[in-house]
């Protein structure tokens, strides 16, 4: 299955509609949407943190740090309250990715902040 075909396929809006389409689980549960948004925030923080390390921008570093903390906290809370494991529609995989990438983004933001504050050694 190609990526375009997967993106173009219709998403069902209820469990009964999904069963009629041959989909075993409901694709759009609120838990999955929460985890997906948290993972997207965490991915954004990682990208912004990497850019902040390259360009030494203070606002980029603060943004990466903030978004990383928000993504990691949402991922951790989602993992803590998930009822089932992978494949149950509870967003466990997205929450785990949000936690890992959020921590990475926060780390990159913190490194960019400390790198920008280093005093120059005078001779």
From TrEMBL:
Name the source's superkingdom.
Answer: Bacteria
Spell out the Pfam families in the cross-references: DUF6223 (PF19733)
- Give the transmembrane region(s): 34-53, 62-81, 93-113
Listed name of the protein: DUF6223 family protein
Source species, please? Nonomuraea salmonea
Annotated keywords:
Membrane, Transmembrane, Transmembrane helix
């Amino acid at each position: 299955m190609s990526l375009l075909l997967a993106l173009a396929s219709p998403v069902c809006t209820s469990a009964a509609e999904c069963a009629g389409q041959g989909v075993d689980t409901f694709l759009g549960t609120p838990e999955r949407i929460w985890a997906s948004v948290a993972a997207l925030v965490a991915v954004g923080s990682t990208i912004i943190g990497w850019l902040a390390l390259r360009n030494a921008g203070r606002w980029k570093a603060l943004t990466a740090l903030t978004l990383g903390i928000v993504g990691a906290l949402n991922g951790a809370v989602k993992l803590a309250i998930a009822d089932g494991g992978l494949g149950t529609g509870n967003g466990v995989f997205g929450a785990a990715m949000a936690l890992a990438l959020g921590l990475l983004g926060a780390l990159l933001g913190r490194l960019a902040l400390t790198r920008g504050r280093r005093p120059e050694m005078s001779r």
